[in-house]
Alkylglycerone-phosphate synthase (Candidatus Protofrankia datiscae), 1158 residues
Amino acid sequence: MYVVTASTTNRSGTVWWGWGAPDAHTPLAEDIRSLLEAAFAVARQDTPPVGLDELHLPASSLSVEASEALAGVVGPAWVRVDAGSRVRRCRGRSTADLLRLRAGDALDAPDAVVLPAGHDEVLAVLRVCARLRLAVVPFGGGTSVVGGLAPARGGFAGVVALDLARLDRLTAVDAESQVVTCEPGLRGPALEAALAAHGFTLGHRPQSWEYASVGGFAATRSSGQASAGYGRFDSLVVGLRIATPAGTWELGRAPASAAGPDLRQLALGSEGAFGVITQLRLRVRPLPAATHYEGWRLAGFAAGTAALRELAQRDLLPTVARLSDETETAAGLAGGGIGADAGGCRLIAGYEGEADWVAARQAAVAEVLGAAGGVPLGAEAGTQWVRGRFHGPYLRDALLDAGMFAETLETAGFWSALPGLYTRVRDTLVAALTAEQAAGQTVRQAAGPPAGATAGPAGEAAAGPAGAGAGEAAAGGAPGLVMCHVSHVYPTGASLYFTVVCPGRDDPVARWRRVKAAASRAIVETGGTITHHHAVGVDHQPWLTAEIGDLGVAVLRAVKHTLDPDGILNPGVLVPRAT
Amino acid sequence: MYVVTASTTNRSGTVWWGWGAPDAHTPLAEDIRSLLEAAFAVARQDTPPVGLDELHLPASSLSVEASEALAGVVGPAWVRVDAGSRVRRCRGRSTADLLRLRAGDALDAPDAVVLPAGHDEVLAVLRVCARLRLAVVPFGGGTSVVGGLAPARGGFAGVVALDLARLDRLTAVDAESQVVTCEPGLRGPALEAALAAHGFTLGHRPQSWEYASVGGFAATRSSGQASAGYGRFDSLVVGLRIATPAGTWELGRAPASAAGPDLRQLALGSEGAFGVITQLRLRVRPLPAATHYEGWRLAGFAAGTAALRELAQRDLLPTVARLSDETETAAGLAGGGIGADAGGCRLIAGYEGEADWVAARQAAVAEVLGAAGGVPLGAEAGTQWVRGRFHGPYLRDALLDAGMFAETLETAGFWSALPGLYTRVRDTLVAALTAEQAAGQTVRQAAGPPAGATAGPAGEAAAGPAGAGAGEAAAGGAPGLVMCHVSHVYPTGASLYFTVVCPGRDDPVARWRRVKAAASRAIVETGGTITHHHAVGVDHQPWLTAEIGDLGVAVLRAVKHTLDPDGILNPGVLVPRAT
């Protein structure tokens, strides 16, 4: 049903400096590139990655003793210290991760990649690593965008990437309960293919779906593009088996229980810091008999979010519901061509299920959207979005090749807080980009920005925050493009997903760190969560205490100490190390 | 919309030996009483509770220092050591709890009842109790049926019941987000009345609704009779504030988050062992515009559960869906009169929501139930169930007065495990009751059991397990009535709720302990959860390790130690004490 554009076996089939398979990459379209260069008033600049031979990759610190002990568990063929294996497990896939790699910095590469064949081997690897003081990074799809694969090395003899690619089986299908048992190394497409053979679907399709693993979905509390219909990943997990340094932990005997706290919810979102998920039991659904996607134009973001709120609170949501703001719509990243919507905000609605349900729900949604002033754009707009739904990371690679910077961040809040959260984060991003622009004019040339591709929402550009505070620097071009969409909707609130595109300039990693910090502060101060579905990793850790309190951090530390007494699992990821 | 039969202020308006207000009690109907006596072949025996003056209530151990320190926090009027206050917070409302009280045993009564006015006073009370080594029982509605209010006293200077009745306000209504903020001491009816003034409902109505508190709903992962439509209580909680001995803990900034494990799920189900919930933020819904309840007759329990499974998996569930097995239907406890259904299984379906939705869902459900051979019994059968929905605990009091014993237990499992779970638990209960009957013939008289009120499902009585293994004893009458219903349905499985009615005989508490242990073992061995919505307390603790593993218990201990380092909160409840 969906186009899979790349191999699904594991990251060894992908480019080491970016996303996906080599043949899936195309350069940035010339019209888009020219438009961005003019908007940002920057000269053309090609910025390809360095060659593999130019990489700064430290020698592996894995001792002979460790190598032999690990090989004794998994077999010599499954302990890898070659450059290709190590570089491909170096960090995750945030833009900062990629920029470092593209510049030749593989300093965070693991010393070895170990590929166990099953649960017992994972347990044994953990014992070896605890004994020899090796840090362990559980590695699924390697698609973290929050530093979830870059542990602190201090105090360890080395870092081992525990790649779960060989745990890739669908092991049981309970068709009556609509519950399947599978292993964590399965990537999205492989899992769906295996389920389809039994007439089922998980329906979980985040943008990283082609490469992300089912274990990673669990470890990061992933949320798919169809969360409105199929639910967040955590809501699909009925059971888990976890290999921890303290032993095996199995959870989940029933659809629901009152036998104390729901401890499955401690494993979900544990980001490899508490244990290695080696088995999952998941709720699945029958493959949808009917599928329909369509586009709508709403007059503005406020009208669109109000309509989504009504749909959610009246239990009338489509399977997929995503609303782009004016800027994202105008930029053509909402599922249509540039300016295709003649202004306003693009909303994509998708319906998957029994034929009767699809027809009835489509009609109910049309009534609500029509009453909200929405204009139907037909099925082609929806199909267009479906075709491009996994395209974002490839586009980012093309932008990075062309001297541009692109990154995303996301949050969620209750409906009453959402307008303030949206405005504050957007304005903060624009202001921070403007400040960066003012501080780094060297790589820009003077040119007027074209209409319709500025930092503020369309129609607000002239008086909007893009111009505010930029002074002389802003006159040289827009500081960046700040776009937003709502893609996960609940009765009580929604997510906000921001995409930033701006000139790469010098030292883009440090620049983004400052911009992201300003946005994160805005999120925390406006009452949003620091992450709706990207997880904590290392990047969001400075904001975690504001979210869960000192007691929350103390609880995470206590749980980690119980399950991982030597602290070998992803040290410094998720759980702040005691100071 | 619902008949509230008792005061809702706090348990001080209730009878000390049973359920609800004194004027809400009526004796067991003569026809039912005669039928049961004949079925069980027992002589008439009135077993009223002892008088309040006959109670064994130990003198309060509260020291003058403690009394003054507590009074210094909450004021002298809110520290109570009188017999009435203490007896009314003695244990919960399991049948064993009531039988002990009715026999005059108030040995577990707290030494004092303290009623704080707000969060800061709760924190201060906890500090006093930690300093003076007093165990603290957070007390909401006092309706625990699993020993959740009977902590271990060993090592403590005394036990304080921390009654949250004064924290009874609805403090904020966010109509846009459909999120309200309230305090934990609100009972079900008071909360609904406060919400109704704003046009909202929580929709959470467990059988204990008249007296249970909203804090208790959270602390025990309660599930309401309308869970199919409104969701389990845990799914309605978006935020919590908890007073712990280690300080204040606030959780929940957004409808959903990936900021690590969902720590709210540690507080939910924590049964007062981690902290005192002092504020909740809850998802509410608009008051339903339309309401319709109806009855159906299904040919058997298997056909009925299959139909419920189809409804759940096709997302077509009514708001209330409960199916009684043949015995419960025949006994008239399924919402109809005795034998009113002419055999088969009674199913109650309730619909609450927008008028269009009620009509459409009712039609969709009728199609599924009709195809499953269901026969509609009309609205009166549904209305009858609504009228009696909170009646169970009053009926139990009447049974206890009449020399009978009545108690419930519950579990849940995946659909594929449900038939085995049902049969095994039912047969185990019948066999255990038969063994108890054989061991205690002294209070029985010889008489033949009438048809239709035996231990097995109707139609199986002759060859069923009731007769098996009972030998000579069984000839004297049925050993008991074992009934079951499904009341909480999920796409992946369902709950099973068993009700046992049998002769009281001598030492019924010890007898039930043996019967319950056999049933609990059957649940664990057949893969069910030890409790779907009654919680762990003290009673289910022997089975907790089987459910969450040694590591699960270790995690609970670590979390408790972090939040309650002196272990003063509900010692021995939920978290097994280290041996």
Q: What stands out?
A: The radius of gyration of chain A is 23 Å.
